[in-house]
Amino acid sequence: MAEIDRVEITKELGKIKNREKAEAYMATVLSQVPDAPVDVQTFTDINDLFEGDGHILIEGKTGYGKTTLLLTLLKRFLDDGWKVLYRDDAGCEFGDLAKYFKTQIFIPEGEGISLTIRGFDADIVRTNSPKKIIDMTYKGNYPLNIIVFDAYVVNPAVSAKFFAKLFMQLIHKCQQTPRRKKQPLIFSIDELNDLIAPHGRGITGAHESLLGLFEVNTRKFRKHKVKLISTTHRFTQISINVRSQCDHIIVKKSYGADIWDFMSRALVTANNKTFWKVLRKVIAMPPNMFLYFDPNGHFDFLTFLDIPRDPNIDVEPLGVVEALEKDQKKIKMNVHTRTGQELYLLGKGWKRIEIAKLLGATPNAVTVDVYRFKARDINAKVHEMISTRTKKTEEE
Fold first, then answer.
1. What is the 3-state secondary structure (H, E, C) of the chain?
2. For the chain, what are the domain ranges?
3. Most buried by CB count within 10 Å: which residue of 110, 131, 245, 342?
4. 0.70 exceeded by the pTM?
């Protein structure tokens, strides 16, 4: 078989905008690659991952162990004496790590906000202040510090605004701390792609702002003894300006089109047989394996043991955060001026959750999004809502 032109494949993938079509194209390409065992000597030392000060980025498909590997790496860093500040992506899998270390968990303030933990001990701190979180992390004697915020948020802009403020507070804290007093810190963000994305792909303006903060400040953290460890679904969801500042790259099982550009660059000096062998293995490897690229461009396939999982450990967050405190007044004003009917119902004592349910929204969608229904949609329901409420009152 003639050698496959990798440059031509890159051009073709660039023309395909649909992800499913891109994967179908890659499947066709890979079907033409013959099986050819190749011995690769890369001289990669995984211990460099734990001894250096470089940032770490983990990429891979959903459900194939990114968070599991992240928790495993964090346990090694905690065992080595690092302090960790961990952003949970709402999966609440941190209990298996908190079981081994003294832990404090930050959750939002607000009526109806709660967190129930089972199978491990932790101190729960209620606060909406990013400054307080940063100060308590550095000053406290808790090796493991967990931020559970996204589990309470429906509107993604609220989450982006919160973490933008948190990131700024961390930067400020680093800059205001004398060199002799700086403490090593792991700032770990599970699913970084939820918070930042390349310019033009941001979910909201708040996400674009957070991306700018990351691009400007990520490289500066080394001076302040802060190491970033993050995960992402795809490399393309993280801007090249952020990716280029990560010295250690870990690739879990991935889709071919998702990692094509990265692999083409990372293995630019590899011969064709080696390139195709590595790519095919990444697409098919088991959940306990990963491909590690060190700062020198050397690479190895490695396996890891998951931290022990305890079936008795559970975390249950309840409640909804509609907005940060400073945004609350503005959002309420927008709600009240949306339509006269909404104002009328709110003034009559109807709760937002009641309006949400009767307008056909999901019971937990108690956000400003509920009030984006057009006036005619509300007019069609308003009389039914009033009569239902009146009839219920009379029966009582």
1. CCCCCHHHHHHHHHHCCCHHHHHHHHHHHHHCCCCCCCCCCCCCCCCHHHHCCCEEEEECCCCCCHHHHHHHHHHHHHHCCCEEEEECCCCCCCHHHHCCCCEEEEECCCCCCEEEEECCCCEEEECCCHHHHHHHHHHCCCCEEEECCHHHECCHHHHHHHHHHHHHHHHHHHHHCCHHHCCCEEEEECCHHHCCCCCCCCCCHHHHHHHHHHHHHHHHHHHHCEEEEEEECCHHHCCHHHHCCEEEEEECCCCHHHHHHHHHHHCCCCCHHHHHHHHHHHHHCCCCEEEEECCCCCEEEEECCCCCCCCCCEEEEECCECCCHHHHHHHHHHHHCCCHHHHHHHHCCCCHHHHHHHCCCCCCCCCHHHHHCCHHHHHHHHHHHHHHHHHHHHHC
2. 48-252+287-316, 323-395
3. 342
4. yes
